[in-house]
Design brief:
Blueprint lengths: L11 H22 L3 H21 L12
Helix pairs in contact: 1-2
């Protein structure tokens, strides 16, 4: 038997999280370029969080909490 690799499933929520993550990271870059650190740092944090949610929702990353304990 041939093993077929699992394809990531595309969901509208996952795509939304990707768009939000890219927008927040672009905002963070623009704010950092203008040396507006009070805007840049939270935007980076929110952008990374949205990117993590996108990866989980698209099935590209699984949570490993609680496994092996």
């Amino acid at each position: 038997m041939w093993a077929v690799p699992a394809r990531p499933r595309l969901s509208s929520r996952g795509i939304l999280f990707v768009v939000l993550a890219l927008g927040l990271l672009a905002l963070a870059f623009a704010a950092a370029s203008a040396r507006r650190w009070l805007i840049a740092l939270p935007a980076v944090a929110l952008g990374l969080w949205m990117a993590d949610l996108a990866l989980r929702d698209l099935g590209l990353r699984t949570s490993r909490r609680g496994e092996g304990r």
